[in-house]
Design a protein that fits this description.
90% helix; 0% strand
């Protein structure tokens, strides 16, 4: 069980990168939708 903390740390780091990527993609997607919405409304 010596390798468990290291694997857990790597897993948490990978999960954190994944979550950061998802939130970044969602925020950029929402911003793009707002831009396209204003373009189409006009």
């Amino acid at each position: 069980m010596v390798y468990a903390p290291d694997r857990l740390f790597k897993g948490v780091k990978k999960l954190a990168n994944y979550v950061r990527y998802i939130t970044f993609w969602q925020s950029s997607f929402v911003r793009n939708m707002q831009i396209y919405g204003t373009l189409f409304i006009k």
